[in-house]
Design a protein that fits this description.
8 helices
């Protein structure tokens, strides 16, 4: 079976959350730092504000990576945009804001970078998040040669993303090989499976490739892991170690 998104348009190496741990994750400062190290493709997490603005944040709550508190998705964008998303990391990044997805799109497009958007819904908002993120991405990248790759652990989010923007490539994220994962990926029209790195072995790689899907691995932070995955023939690796691996 041949993938609907062949040849694969994305580079092998993907910088996790912008620049791994070297800068505050999911901020434009992280993307800029990753780019200075030569990275061309970045991964980020996107959820919805209470008033429907897609923005970058990994956690459901604000405490770990911002100056705010409580459920991020329960707050309007006007409040979220005022938070400090950099001071937790180091004083040099104090005052760095949470970016909206549209901010990241403008930066990527202006600088020729590519993006993997993980749709990260607040619990209970899976379909809304998938729909709005996909629609925003489709609009922002409407004239781009290479669109963003949309991934999610949530089949409901991916289904809504497919319905909103069927031309954007999608990938199913897996932390474990749950029953029916292959059928789910095919029903959703996915182009890739993105697994936790230790799930990949020769049998799984062969199974995914036989389905016409690409094999992506996360999050790979040492050379022995990367060497094993390269030997298996995976199609992409996400890493925090943007100074250890060469993205070329």
């Amino acid at each position: 079976m041949t993938s609907a998104f062949s040849p694969w348009p994305y580079p092998f190496w993907i910088a996790h959350r912008g620049a791994g741990t070297l800068a505050p994750e999911n901020t434009l400062a992280a993307f800029r730092l990753g780019a200075r190290h030569g990275w061309r493709m970045f991964e980020c997490d996107v959820k919805l504000s209470a008033d429907g603005v897609p923005f970058l944040l990994h956690d459901d709550t604000l405490e770990r990576t911002t100056s705010g508190c409580g459920m991020a998705g329960a707050q309007p964008w006007s409040a979220l945009a005022q938070l400090d998303a950099g001071g937790w990391h180091s004083p040099a990044y104090a005052g760095e804001p949470i970016p909206a997805l549209e901010d990241v799109a403008r930066w990527c497009l202006a600088n020729g970078h590519l993006l993997n958007i993980e749709i990260k819904p607040t619990p209970g908002r899976e379909a809304d998040t998938g729909r709005v993120v996909a629609a925003t991405a489709a609009h922002s990248w409407q004239n781009a040669i290479t669109p963003p790759l949309l991934t999610s652990f949530s089949p409901d989010a991916l289904r809504a993303a497919r319905d909103a923007a069927p031309h954007l490539p999608r990938g199913l994220l897996l932390a474990q090989l749950r029953d029916g994962w292959a059928d789910t990926a095919q029903r959703l029209g996915c182009a890739a499976i993105a697994c936790r790195h230790d799930l990949w072995d020769a049998a799984l790689t062969a199974q995914v490739k036989a389905l016409g899907l690409r094999c992506l691995a996360w999050t790979v932070n040492d050379e022995s892991m990367a060497t094993r995955l390269l030997g298996l023939g995976v199609d992409g690796i996400m890493t925090d170690q943007v100074t250890l691996f060469s993205p070329a």
